[in-house]
């Protein structure tokens, strides 16, 4: 037994010695690998430093800003900005497609439209955050609405002193309304009580034809598709050249009783005790010229354009309608004609009772006009009426089944008929 123990003990010693030599040979490279991994981890942690923001400027600009406007580019300046993982405005994360540049000292981004925590009387209710793996930097900043834009003017031909209603978007931070005059503009008076989508402004003396400019804390804005004050293009009838008016059943006048002042002459048609039946009022026939129309994009369909005009209704208009005919004649020969029925009282905003306190701008989409001889065929494009040379407005109060009342008073004034683009592309 003693001999066996010695034999196995010598074998065990040899094996242990061999394992020791093998382990010794592996220990050095193993320690080296562990050291490298440790150093790499330490280096990585040493590289990540908390970001710091010094300022925000317009993209590639140098002037510091403390407020952001949607649809604009900005640059964040500071140190340790490389490897920024997120830019967050309030709770909105600026996604990768809006991050346009990132260096150790700058992060540039595109500002989308977003809701703000701000109220205009309180500074710094919004925030901007830079997020990295090892830290976050937050600064207070204001986020403003986009620049304002006009979508409708209640009376595009208003005279100085008139109050007009402007409708649009992003009026929250409005500070001035400038009417066109020379190259600078003249300021209109903003009346109290304006909202984010509308304001009432008094037309100033000296206002000329052109675009109204809205000035807000976000910047300057106008309409997106050519809504002007006293637009000069597209007019097919303004009644100021009274010698060219061929109609009857009304009068071309510049001072009709009870009708607000307008720029020059206008048409006023009226009647009393109108019973239902054909030929309720004599028609208005107006020779027109379409050759001075503005050039529009050829790809736009008829619903982008409309017949626009100023209208004033002295008495409540609740029944009857105008049939408007737009076409071309060669002598007595009819080349083409399109018609449309105009019933403003039928619009939901008037609740079946159309009347105005002043002149209003109305429009009828050209897509509402149908071929006179086949009402199933609408105007397809603006080019189809390029050579129209006459227009007829015929008031109708047709007989219907059941009880129908006599129209006791009726008076409507029309002015500045024109073809315009009424919808943005």
Q: Under CATH, the topology of the largest domain is which? A: Jelly Rolls
SSE succession: HEEEEEEEEEEEEEEEEEEEEEEEEEEEE
Number of helices: 1
Using DSSP, what is the number of strands? 28
Return the CATH class of the largest domain: Mainly Beta
- Mean pLDDT comes to 83
Largest sheet: 7 strands, antiparallel
Distance N to C terminus: 105 Å
Low-confidence stretches: 1-15, 41-45
Could you name the CATH homologous superfamily of the largest domain?
A: Galactose-binding domain-like
Strand content: 35-45%
Derived structural class: mainly beta
Give the fraction of residues assigned to helices: 10-25%
Computed Rg: 37 Å
What number of domains?
A: 3
Chain-wise SSE layout:
Elements: H1 2-47, E1 52-58, E2 67-68, E3 72-79, E4 86-89, E5 92-93, E6 99-102, E7 106-111, E8 126-132, E9 135-143, E10 149-153, E11 163-169, E12 174-179, E13 186-190, E14 198-202, E15 213-216, E16 219-221, E17 235-237, E18 251-253, E19 266-274, E20 284-287, E21 305-313, E22 321-330, E23 333-342, E24 360-365, E25 370-371, E26 374-378, E27 390-396, E28 407-421
Parallel strand pairs: 2-9
Antiparallel strand pairs: 1-3, 3-7, 4-5, 4-8, 6-7, 8-9, 10-11, 11-14, 12-13, 12-15, 13-14, 15-16, 17-28, 18-19, 19-28, 20-27, 21-24, 21-28, 22-23, 22-27, 23-25, 25-26
